[in-house]
């Protein structure tokens, strides 16, 4: 505590403690947004009306008041009544409107870089896709979707591509962030079901953040932590001394990717020291005895040797979370999800919550924090690896149910799920996938081992990008660019990390001839000749109704929602809400309060496997481990949007900064601020060295937002979730 935060320096605000600064992010920004160039309205414009929207950047799902003049948005402020953010917003949310005005918005379809009208573009799209599918079969074309568009649109894309156009394969960029949590929850709980509500941040006695840096990545969730009045212990497990680690009461700076061993070591000590909630385990779980026998090998001595922690640290950690502490909540995000054994690591967190009985009660849970604004919508409705509503393509009864709910003949529903993202790309390299349609995603920047990805993309017969901006690294490679409207220029729903469905309206016109993704899909259905399948899909709300039917009797059942008006009136609604629950909606609800899970016998399952080494180990030629992550709360992913804001630009360093420990710097003869080359077996880039104790000797850190960083990353994947492992790549650093 008390260390100066990196972002504080960037804001050129007076030195302040970390807690003061994070407090400033919300309270002061709300009171004095103009101090940071946020929320200013030209004096000639005064709003004459206000409407409400959910933010379209991250999975926190903050409520915003959009102020209108003559029916169009001129400004926004955080919504004080929305149960998620309670009147606060991070810099990205404040700037959500300004990034829509960027000069590089895609305004017209571009065919081989030349503007064409929609008729030409859509005829070309359909001709090329039909040619490829006819000549090479249904596996020759694929789509890659996103967590950034409304879920009514995601569903339209998934249904159009698979049931209408006849594709088999389609995945989403959520494979890069959330596939691990999905896989882990499904196996452990019987359904992909994050159990928590944000109130749990305020109601815990101990919060354990593993591979999560909410101060930067989810700053409004962090504000909820700061509202906790129970004087909580805040434990951070992270190789780096992140901003959240600085604010924590305990920080365990383990060796990169030793998290699974640590979690098993904690389980070992809980068993040994009587920290197991036996009554919960016996009543509500399966597989504990085998798990207890398995973790017997994870002695404190072994765990300390493999993680770099001391015995005292390990004992303090376990004493803080062991049975007798009333409420412990476990939170994880990309540091876990993006690992080579990510699913088992997520399940090791779930195991800790189960064995200590920390689930289904206030302030508890094994809680995966999501990334994109609609990653959760994608998990239920993108129709990629799951059939709509969390169903299974392989299950005949599920296909019948979805055919009935959508009105689409069952013969059109594929009987197998899609290949995963990396497998689609591998198939493109092998030449079996010849066309890919990317929607609202920029893999030329974001995919692991980026140069390899771009080599493969350049082999495609047909590469289509549908996006708001025509200047993304992927759009520049595309044969055809379809210009799309963005958040605020169309309506529909997102689902946030706590399962809350929120609505976002259209408050502006899209530039030029850009169209809502929803309308692009309707047009493609028409040009393809399958619009009859979508006769009920006239509006986003009509699709919402179709999707409600798809969820009937599923854990995510939302048949009790009365439609958009009710979602807006209630400040979002968490799933599930079944027909019979309509009258007892609470603002914040958590799952598993009755101890019943979604497995056939209603018991949660202990799942575990032996840890293994990350593939790209440090070695003589590449002696340092590169960790990547979010840079600042003003940056979002590939910066397709956030780079367009002058205000946000002031909050980030001008140059790419490499965090390097002073001990390594001395050995390498690198001084603070010097230019350095960062070299991996795949590529090299130049950055400025920032000497800091935030990384340990042997480790370096780069923010993922710079377009070159993923040229360095090593392409390995969790075998269960197929999620890329971005957090462990061997590099060397040289002074320039
Ligand atoms: Fe938007 Fe996320 Fe920031 Fe909230 S925390 S304002 S949802 S970007």
In words, what does this structure look like?
By secondary structure, this protein is α/β, with parallel strands linked by helices. Helices cover 32% and strands 16% of the residues. A seven-stranded mixed sheet has the order 5-4-16-15-14-6-7, sandwiched between helices. Strands 21-25-22-24-23-26 form a six-stranded mixed barrel. Strands 10-9-8-12-13 form a five-stranded parallel sheet. The longest helix is centred in the N-terminal third of the chain and has 19 residues, at 118-136. It starts with 5 loop residues before the first helix and ends with a strand. Iron/sulfur cluster binds at residues 55, 57-58, 60-62, 85, 89-90, 92-93, 219-220.
Characteristic key phrases:
about 725 residues, about 30% helix, 27 helices, alpha/beta, 4 domains, Rossmann fold, single chain, binds iron/sulfur cluster, six-stranded mixed barrel, Dimethylsulfoxide Reductase, domain 2, about 15% strand, seven-stranded mixed beta sheet, N-terminal domain of TfIIb
């Amino acid at each position: 505590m008390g260390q100066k935060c990196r972002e504080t320096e960037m804001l050129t605000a007076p030195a302040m403690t970390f807690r003061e600064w994070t407090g400033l992010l919300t309270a002061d920004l709300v009171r004095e947004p103009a101090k940071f160039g946020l929320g200013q309205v030209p004096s000639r414009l005064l709003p004459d009306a206000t409407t409400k929207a959910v933010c379209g950047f991250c999975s926190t799902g903050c409520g915003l008041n959009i102020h209108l003049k003559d029916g169009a948005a001129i400004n926004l402020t955080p919504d004080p009544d929305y149960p998620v953010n309670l009147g606060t917003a991070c810099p990205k949310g404040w700037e959500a409107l300004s990034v829509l005005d960027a000069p590089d918005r895609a305004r017209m379809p571009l065919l081989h870089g030349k503007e064409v009208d929609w008729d030409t573009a859509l005829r070309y799209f359909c001709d090329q896709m039909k040619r490829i599918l006819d000549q090479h079969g249904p596996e020759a074309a694929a789509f890659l979707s996103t967590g950034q568009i409304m879920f009514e649109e995601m569903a339209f894309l998934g249904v159009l591509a698979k049931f209408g156009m006849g594709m088999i394969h389609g995945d989403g960029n959520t494979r890069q962030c959330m596939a691990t949590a999905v896989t882990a929850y499904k196996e452990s709980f019987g359904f992909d079901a994050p159990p928590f509500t944000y109130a749990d941040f305020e109601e815990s006695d101990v919060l354990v953040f593993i591979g999560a840096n909410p101060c930067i990545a989810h700053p409004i969730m962090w504000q909820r932590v700061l509202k906790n009045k129970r004087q909580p212990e805040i434990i951070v497990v992270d190789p780096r001394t992140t901003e959240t680690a600085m604010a924590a009461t305990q920080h365990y700076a383990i060796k990169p990717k030793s998290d699974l061993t640590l979690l098993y070591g904690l389980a070992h000590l809980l068993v040994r020291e009587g920290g197991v909630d036996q009554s919960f385990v016996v009543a509500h779980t399966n597989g504990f005895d085998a798990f207890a026998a398995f973790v017997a090998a994870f002695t404190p001595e072994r765990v300390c040797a493999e993680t770099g922690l001391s015995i005292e640290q390990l004992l303090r950690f376990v004493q803080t979370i062991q049975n007798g502490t009333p409420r412990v909540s476990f939170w994880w995000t990309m540091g876990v999800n993006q690992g080579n054994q990510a699913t088992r690591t997520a399940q090791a967190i779930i195991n800790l919550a189960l064995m200590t009985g920390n689930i289904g009660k206030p302030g508890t849970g094994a809680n995966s924090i999501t990334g994109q604004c609609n990653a959760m919508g994608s998990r239920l409705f993108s129709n990629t690896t799951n059939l709509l509503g969390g169903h299974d393509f392989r299950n005949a009864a599920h296909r019948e149910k979805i055919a009935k709910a959508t009105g689409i003949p069952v013969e059109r529903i594929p009987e197998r799920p899609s290949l995963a993202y990396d497998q689609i790309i591998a198939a493109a390299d092998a030449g079996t996938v010849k066309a890919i349609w990317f929607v609202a995603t920029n893999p030329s920047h974001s995919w692991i081992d980026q140069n390899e990805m771009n080599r493969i993309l350049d082999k495609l017969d047909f590469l289509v990008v549908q996006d708001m901006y025509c200047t993304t690294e992927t759009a520049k490679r595309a044969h055809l660019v379809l210009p799309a409207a963005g958040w605020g220029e169309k309506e529909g729903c997102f689902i946030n990390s706590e399962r809350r469905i929120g609505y976002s309206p259209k408050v502006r016109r899209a530039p030029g001839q850009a169209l809502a993704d929803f309308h692009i899909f309707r047009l493609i259905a028409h040009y393809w000749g399958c619009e009859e399948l979508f006769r009920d899909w006239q509006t986003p709300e009509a699709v919402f109704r179709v999707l409600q039917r798809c969820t009937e009797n599923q854990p995510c059942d939302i048949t009790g929602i009365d439609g958009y008006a009710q979602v807006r009136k209630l400040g979002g609604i968490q799933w599930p809400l079944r027909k019979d629950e309509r009258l007892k909606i609470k603002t914040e609800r958590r799952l598993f309060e009755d101890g019943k899970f979604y497995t056939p016998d209603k018991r949660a399952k202990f799942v575990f496997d032996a840890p293994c080494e990350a593939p790209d180990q440090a070695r003589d030629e590449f002696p340092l481990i590169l960790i990547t992550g979010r840079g600042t709360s003003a940056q979002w992913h590939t910066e397709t949007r956030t780079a367009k804001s002058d205000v946000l630009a002031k909050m980030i360093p001008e140059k790419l900064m490499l965090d390097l420990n002073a001990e390594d710097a001395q050995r390498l003869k690198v001084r603070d601020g010097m230019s350095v080359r960062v070299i991996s077996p795949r590529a090299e880039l130049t950055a400025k060295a920032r000497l800091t104790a935030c990384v340990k000797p042997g480790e370096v850190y780069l923010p993922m937002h710079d377009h070159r960083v993923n040229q360095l990353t090593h392409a390995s994947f969790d075998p269960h979730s197929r999620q890329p492992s971005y957090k462990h790549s061997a590099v060397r650093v040289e002074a320039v």
